[in-house]
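Case study.
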Amino acid sequence: MSTATVSHKKVKASVLVEVCSVRLAETWFGVPITHILEIVGAVRPQPVPLAPAYVGGLVHYRGDVLTTVSLRQLLDLPPNEGAQAILVLESTGGCFGLLVDAVGEVLTVSSTDHEPNPSILDRRRKALFAGAYKLKDRLLVMLDPERLDPLQLSQAHPD
Amino acid sequence: MPGKRCNCPLTPDPCFLKFILFHPIKALSARRAGAAKSRLAGWFKAMDELTREFLIESQEGLDRMEQCLTDLETRPQDAALLGEIFRSVHTIKGTTGFLGFKRLETLAHAGENLLGLLRDGKLAANRPLITGLLHLLDGLRAILKSIETMASEGEGEDSALIEQLVALQAPANVKQPVHAKVGATFSAAPAAAAPQAPSAPQAQAPVSAAQAPAAPAQQPANAIPAPVVQSAAAGSETDASRPRAQIAAAGSAAESTLRVDVVLLNRMMNLVGELVLTRNQVLQATASDPNMTLLSRRLDMVTADLRENVMKARMQPVSNIFSKMPRIVRDLSQSLGRRVRLVVEGQDTELDKSLLEAIKDPLTHAVRNSLDHGIEPPEVRVAAGKDPEGTLKLRASHEGSHVIIEVSDDGAGIAVEKVRDKAIERGIIAPERASQLGEHELLQLVFLPGFSTAAAVTNVSGRGVGMDVVRTNVEKIGGKVEIDSRTGKGTTLRLRIPLTLAIIPALIVRSVNQSFALPQGSLSELVHVPPEQAAKTIEWIEGAPLYRLRGKLLPLVFLDRLLMPAGEHKSASERDSFIAVLDVDGRRYGLVVDGLADPEEIVVKPLSAVLKVIGLYSGATVLGNADLALILDPGAIAVKAGVTMSADRDAEGADSEEEDTNAAKGMEYLLVEAAGRRAAVPLADVLRIEQIPLSRIEFIGDRPVLNFEGQLMPVEDSGGVLAAAEANSASQTDREPQIIVVVCREGNRHVGIAVSHVLDVAAGGDLFEAGTSQRTGGVTLLKDRVTGVVDLAGVQPLPVCENVSEDWNQIAETVA
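After joint prediction, the assembly is written out as follows.
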């Protein structure tokens, strides 16, 4: 059955997608480069007292003050004390920064290698991930920039 | 280096580098405008260039027409005015023809017929006619608005308006055809049109140039439908000569001005802010390298220049909103039966565009109030021995880094007793409390919500949502409102507006190991509480901390406890604390912080929606050292911490009762010491206290002066403080001597007073001469000691230009 689906997909279309890989602890995640405006390295965001927990703080970005989202906090990982990198992402609600440990390379992946979220994933992660690409040696978990938007998160975690 | 940004080229892949270059600000700024605005922006994009140009030009034309119409009332014979009005309507009609806005064209046509008669002297401008034309103006505006928002002319019925316009052309209104009169109008027109063009504001000049060429081509065609027989030759003669005169005058202005999108200007402002920060970092990084000094100095200068010019580009003259007032005054004075003369001063005072927008409503409100509550009906004025025609004065002027806008009338003034009775009746204030308030304090009650002294609610004002809205709106942009009134003489409302919204003065404070910016607008004083005194001076009622500030209890808010409710906090006796005494919306409280840094001019950056809902921050800013700081919102902190107005007032009331027993009149003085003698300065006049190195004091002749915020200020040194400091410095060579200058306001100027120490602030009592019960001037009773009051008015002004040498003139100019 599974082979049937795969072959079916292959017949249908094989679209190439460019994905920027980012690392968080030991896991590599992917973000479609169409959503990335800029990558800013080595920043220490300014914390905002009383802000929701998923807000990683503020950074100065091109004359504006950018709100960042801490991916570590969202995934319940311990906070990173060192410098972090920021992906400046664009979503329908505006721009925001995504705090990650490091930025890797840009990979070109084929849509035929994409798999949806596995059903055993917990609810919170299911809401943030957009499936995964099967690379030769590992899996690249895709993040959905729309769902990481602080406005979206504020509705998902009203705390 | 924290906060330093670098685009990290982590991979050589070229497609990765591609998106680094993508510029995000366009996307950012478009989104920031609300939903309605973005819809409009969408249509603006879709709308072709021609229609957009047409809308902008027509609106400018109509604005000018409105102004001319109100002027026409006082000068009904002015041919230049009539010509201007005619052209506005004519241009709209001409352009709509080929853009296909039928409804607009029909209405404009009807108006044009009437205006044609007026212009040719066949009709005389009278009040009903001007009212009719104002209706035409409103009609045209409504249609233009609908084109702008909905891309169509909308479903409206103009036939009633058109009928009214046609009726105004009726023979009853037509003058007897006096030929000499017509001839006079023609010959006057070209001459009058020429001087008028250069006097029009620059921004409008290009429009006149654009519409002028269109005029002669269309003119003869319109002359025909006019019902009154008219010589075609005479008509074309005026039209041919008029535009030529105007083109000549407006031509140079059209070439030197340019329309720029506000979004673009905002973006430029943002980028300049960014450049300033980068420059600061470059200056820091290159400070030790002598090869770079020249280059970085140059970068410094160019950046400062650029910033100043971009700010200038955003400035608009206040005449943009003042010009709307004649119409409002006219309509209101007619409906209220008042006779009012509007006097406008300082029209060319400039203000940032966004601020101008923000004060439009408060100003309109103030003008309405003056007409409704201030200026009396003519018969009442005559009975009171006044000119039946009231005067409403609008005045704009610069004062330091602020623009002052005054709305004053010579009407009835505000009856203080009425204000007090009304406030008690509405439960805004307790009767006991009211009896303790002075006249000036009682007047300020009109700014409280739910207050109105109007006997009856009219459709103009009196619903009690007036002055508090004015105050809220002005305070929102960092301004202040003051009111001054004398019964029977009139009322003056003074709006103090900062020059720009984007940059505000703030004090940087430290708490929870972070920097925060506290806007100085609401900051009234700072108190240092050393750890050993904390237990004694900070008192508690259950869980509520209070500080005894000059005998009054001040509620305290600990910033660290407010921001980190869960965290561990050092008590005030374990560390230094600072109390920032804040005054906001009638609430007074002390914000306790861990440390103070320098005051700084900060550039306000908006916060994202998720952080706005926290409610304590009004924005964020980037400090000089490239750190980010959140801007605290003193009003929101008061609300969050539960500092309410009524509680505050009760506390104040209880205190002042006590206070009143030992100080009869509660005028407060700053107690200073100058070379061994004590003196008092009225606290209301004190602007700030500056500690400066002695070398900053300069001399004009033998008069000491101080260059204070770019203005030359005389320094009063009757106590010989300067000489004493000079002598002192001779003995101590290790550090530069410092002196203290108390900067005071005296009328419209600033005056400095050199003192050796500032001792305290205390309430003074009037002294009465024994036997005569006459109040003695120049002295006051402070802390049971008779103290001399510094006579600020007696400080001699700086020498005026004529008796100063040429050099001084130049210096004064550069300083100014």
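Observations recorded in class. Chain B touches chain A through 50 residues (CB under 8 Å). The mean pLDDT of chain B is 72. We will return to this complex in the next lecture.
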